Amino acid sequence: MDYPELAARTRRFSHGAPRAVSVADDGSRVVFLRSAGPEDPADALWLLDVATGKERLVADPATLLGADADPAALSRGERALRERQRLSAAGIGSYALDAAGRVAAFPLAGRLFRADLVHGDVVEVATVGPVLDPRPDPSGERLAYVTDAAEGVRRGELRVIDPDGADTLLAGEDAGVTWGLAEHIAAEEFGRFRGYWWAPDGRTVLAARVDESRLERWHLHDPADPASPPTTVAYPRAGGPNAEVSLHLLDLDGGWVDVHWDRETYPYLTAVSWAEGGPLITVLRRSQQHGLVLAVDPRTGETQVHAELADPRWVEPIAGTPAHLPDGRVLVGGELAHDGYDARCLFADGTLLTPPSLYVRRVVGRLPAAGQGPADLLVEASDGEPSERHLFRVRTTIGGGVDARRLTTDSGWHTAAVGGDVLVVGVATLDHAGTRWTVWRGDEEVAVLGSHAATPPYSPLPLLERVTDRRLPSAVLYPNSYVTGRRLPVLLDVYGGPGHQEVVAARAAWLERQWWADAGFAVVVVDNRGTPGVAPSFEKAIHRRVADVILSDQVDALTALADKHPDLDLGRVAVRGWSFGGWLAALAVLRHPELFRCGIAGAPVTDWALYDTAYTERYLGMPEDGADVYAHHSLVDLAAEPVTGPERARPLLLVHGLVDDNVVAAHTLRLSAALLSAGRPHSVLPLTGATHMAAGGTAERLLRLELDFLRTHVL
Q1: Among 343, 365, 364, CA closest to 354
Q2: Of 189, 381, 497, 673, which cross-links 358 as Cys (Cβ 3.0–4.6 Å)?
Q3: Does residue 41 contact residue 15 with C-beta atoms inside 8 Å?
Q4: How many Cα atoms sit within 13 Å of 695 on the Cβ side?
Q5: Summary count for the chain: helices (H), strands (E)
């Protein structure tokens, strides 16, 4: 079986692999999702007993739904949430635990299930309609959920089910207003996928109210199914209105307290946490150049400023913050950009907790203190090598100085979950396939989470390097049959956008690229300025000049790599990318036809005035303040320029899902119209029924069509 078919059938070798790993607070249980085998798309809920090291199946979708049911059946709201999370798995997509990790709640085919993780019982709980984001209260006695739209049921009602089964409406309004859900911007651009939070005592819920009545309504329709009605979405396009988001403390007995902050000045609610110590929230200005970390008084709703976040370009909060430390201080993420330092760090009420040598990526949780004193922090960070991510123990003792000790030794990409004295470590490396999960109690490895994933057909070994005076992380991947001295055409495989790295020391990132290499290419990958992992100044150099900085970095890195690797034939270069990478691929062909012979642009943003507010305005500013900036970054404007020479007529293959609600298909259609008017050669491949992820094997099955295109124009 060839790679494209195998990758499609195994969801890129992720079916059967553990994911969504969490640990009970007392360290007794590890909970995770995993399907039954390498071609089974339906994830089930599993548990590992730490004391015995034994795994146990808790909830199987096929058993719960019946043999005739479709485990991939999703309500519209659940499908949209998984799209925001970039989750293509069927079955159980996510779950939530009570404080002790004894009860799990999860949606399945719009129905609500409650699992007793101690005794193993799983029961369906009756609801008034399809459920979204169900969560047990900290005691595990009550369940909260949000309704999805159905006949006779409004989307966005926040409801609570008591132990006796009584289902009570906590908050809900007419169409255009939802309760307990994250708005598009929060989920897509800030990584906040939820809209309500239980109080530690289980008597109050902190809930977001989202009013989308001012937003434009966009209508998405797949022409392949002309009998179906269009889907209407409220889309916050750049320069236009955003959803109005407010927070409210809802008492189970009917009490109601509004949370007060200057929502006009700070409209973006980017992070919320509520543990012992009270609620903490992070809010940003629309420009995202200034933010506040606020503590909320749960009795009155009044807020107190604990920290200010400021940057003349944009503020980049750190996942896992804000949070209360055991001694009552507030943990925040920020940047150290003075006295020669350039790092993402952690602070507690102004005190630096992590050394400037670390690039902090996420706060995982708390580890028991290594001796006397309060608990330490477990942090994911990089320490000088952006292609790797490691785990660090960070001391929080007042007056103890900055102290961060690296816990992981293997090269690779590490992640973790923690509870009590149990640490679960996942590591992906270039030396083995997939992510390996080990369970540790103290310094002792007590178990390994089993994986049923398929073994990939390749063991790629990319050559990772740093090139140019900017030390751009880069990589070259050769065919397995490569013989030195044979000149190879080059495929520049790009993403290049903020918030994501491609040059990582994990085999999964290189499997598809090895297929491309074995098809006869030297595959080149570059993480330009604007991507994370190096330093804040490296990321933010793109502010309001995204196109110029990113494209020049890609071209300069490609030239530098060719100097080091003389078999790279820069007379035969192709470029391909998806989403931001699709925009970059098309930009490369249109601006540098002397270098790029052809390009493949998948789901590209072709007109940034047609993309969402938070992302676009963060990097380009407001459209009314910089029409020239937007025009400079527009592929539609660039394509409309007249063709002045044969080298400028480089062909493009445009690919787009017709029901993409993130980068709508209008982007590709408008670019195609501009290319056609200018007489530029291109092809358009519409994907019927496909979203931005092009999930379900569609993306993998495109590979041969893309290869035929490149062979026609490059090989």
Answers
A1: 343
A2: 381
A3: yes
A4: 19
A5: 14, 44
Q: H/E/C letters for each residue in 418-464?
A: EECCEEEEEEECCCCCCCEEEEEECCEEEEECCCCCCCCCCCCCCEE
Give the contacts of 150 (CB within 8 A, at least 6 positions apart): 75, 110, 129, 130
Q: Do residues 98 and 140 touch, judged by C-beta distance below 8 A? A: yes
Tens-place pLDDT, residues 430-477: 999 999 999 999 889 999 999 999 999 999 999 999 999 999 999 999
Virtual torsion, Cα 638, 639, 643, 648, nearest 10 deg:
90
SS (H, E, C) 572-597: EEEEEEECHHHHHHHHHHHHCCCCEE
DSSP 8-state symbol, 487: -
- Strand 682-687 and strand 652-657: the pairing is parallel
Helix (H) or strand (E) holding 616: helix 613-620
Closest by alpha carbon to 710, among 661, 656, 650? 650
Name the token pair of 28.
Answer: 């007794």
List the structure tokens of 229: 């009605």
Burial of residue 104 (CB within 10 Å: 0-12, 13-18, 19+) is: buried
| Distance set, CA 568 to CA 288, 487, 520, 525, 639 (Å) | 41, 6, 12, 13, 29
**Residue found by looking up tokens 């085919």 in the block:** 109
Q: Quick check: 656 and 602 in contact, CB under 8 A?
A: yes
- What is the C-alpha separation between 87 and 78, in angstroms, rounded? 11
Task: Give the gyration radius of the chain's Cα atoms.
Answer: 25
The two tokens of residue 290 are 């200034």
Query: DSSP character for 87?
Result: -
Contacts of residue 398, defined as CB under 8 A and 6 or more positions apart, other chains included, come to: 327, 329, 351
Query: Six-digit token pair at 644?
Result: 């002045």
Whats the size of the chain, residue-wise? 715
CB 356 within 8 A of CB 404: no
d(CA 250, CA 566): 66
Distance of alpha carbon 178 from alpha carbon 160, whole angstroms: 15
pLDDT digits (tens, 9 = 90+) for 516-569: 999 999 999 999 999 999 999 999 999 999 999 999 999 999 999 999 999 999
Q: Which residue has the tokens 């060719």?
A: 562
Q: How far is CA 74 from CA 12, 91, 275, 604, 695, in A?
A: 22, 9, 31, 27, 14
What letter represents residue 650's amino acid?
R
pLDDT in tens, 364-411: 999 987 666 678 999 999 999 999 999 999 998 877 678 899 999 999
Q: Is 433 left (phi over 0), alpha (psi -120 to 50) or beta?
A: beta
Name the burial class of residue 72, with classes exposed (0-12), middle (13-18) and buried (19+) by CB atoms within 10 angstroms of its CB. middle
Residues 33-67 have pLDDT tens digits of 999 999 999 999 999 999 999 999 999 999 999 86
What are the angstrom distances between the C-alpha of 320 and each of 136, 285, 426, 607?
A: 21, 20, 18, 33
CA distances from 488 to 3, 94, 232, 459, 516 (A): 21, 44, 47, 20, 12
Residue 702, amino acid: L
Q: Classify 7 as helix, strand or coil.
A: helix
Element (H, E) at 112: strand 111-116
> What count of Cα atoms within 13 Å lies in the side-chain half-sphere of residue 275?
16
Question: Using CB atoms within 10 A of its CB, is residue 130 exposed (0-12), middle (13-18) or buried (19+)?
Answer: buried
Q: Specify the amino acid at residue 196.
A: Y
